[in-house]
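Teaching assistant here, posting this on the class forum so everyone can see the example we discussed in section. The complex has two components, and the goal was to see what a joint structure prediction looks like when all of them are supplied at once.
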Amino acid sequence: MKDVAIIKSGVTLALIAAICTALVAVTYQLTETRIAANEQAWLERSLQPALSGLFFDSGVSDSKLIVQPPHELPGTEAAIIYRVYAQDAPVAALFVVSARDGYAGPIRILVGIDINGVVSGIHVLEHRETPGLGDRVESTKSDWVKQFSGRSLIDPKPVGWNIKGDGGQFDQLTGASVTPRAVIKAIRETLLYFDTYKEEIFAEASTGSVEEEEQE
Amino acid sequence: MTESGIIERFKTGLWRENPGLVQLLGLCPLLAVTSSFVNGLGLGIATLAVLVASNALVSATRRWIRPEIRIPIYVLIIASLVTCIELIFKAWFPALDRSLGIFIPLIVTNCAIVARAEVFASRNPVSSSMLDGLVMGAGFALLLMAIGIFRELVGQGTVLSNMHMLLGGEPMRGLVLTDGGWLLAILPPGAFFSLALAIAAKNMIDRRRRENRQSAMPDRARRASK
């Protein structure tokens, strides 16, 4: 009798599991295309701040380049580079990098740099900084990140890429200097990287993980 | 069920046995996402939907489920419903999904849901169980919204900001009363303080009512004896 009970229970469990799986599968089928479209739209939208004032005719998200660690870009995880072209001539590169030394974990930043090494726009994508203090690096909360647009390694020189409190040229945020310091450092490192590897970045074929030759 | 019965059930879910205020269930999401009204409303709706659907399924299958395997079955049902809700949020409210992040999948661990399955849905017919899910979910959602609106107002000085995450369209700043607020309210300690205030307010109202009733009682008794 005991065995019968166990078998009954097992069959019930299997049946319910099958029904639940079917439920999830159907929902997945129904939402799949919408979710993919949302992800794509979100990506395009989140790249927008770094594209302002640029003329280009290429699909930005198609020209993706993944740089696996170890690399000379900020952050310990893989960095992403999107390349922007106008009539097949390179216009700009968008970097998704991580500032390691944020107040609460890494800060994921989008750094847009045009072909002349001038910052086209900065956007903080992800962070866990303190609400009301460090989170003002977000473009929706304050205009702090706008001060970098149009600047380059010539204006100011690399030593000037620091907060004013550290002898640099950029404003800090009241009550938060760790976050701005981390963000500025990441931008500076990205600019230096772009300066060094400009040719290689645009020569690389799209997509996939490209282990950079210069790392060898 | 009679109309007054339904009203009684709503009173139970929203007030007398409010899952958050009285049973103190599901506090993790309650404390974590209520930094703004829209987040509270979003998670409230998601929890409500899961609760109604899980109560319905648990109740519908209650006759042929042996008691010894009921818990794994509740877990299965709740987990797959939450996955569905998560997919639906990703498809139709992507901004809200990003804002709530891990707390949508974490609805699985909201003990208010498994508690209703065990206490109510496994012993009652489908319609009654769905009503129970509705009132309990509504009680939870209203508490999330109340704490959300309070923390957002005090901590950020805004009312109903970022409603576009739920409604779609252009970003909405909401009603901006002051620039910045008392930061503590949107930090984690603010969540505990706000919940404590809400519970204290409920207890105070209950006590007032009880005292009113008691002071009214002798009057009535005297009148009856005359």
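For the discussion questions: Chain B touches chain A at residues 35, 61, 64-66, 68-69, 72-73, 76-77, 79-81, 83-84, 87-88, 90-92, 94, 98, 155-156, 171, 180, 183, 186-187 (CB under 8 Å). Residues 3-225 of chain B form one domain. Think about how each of these relates to the inputs above.
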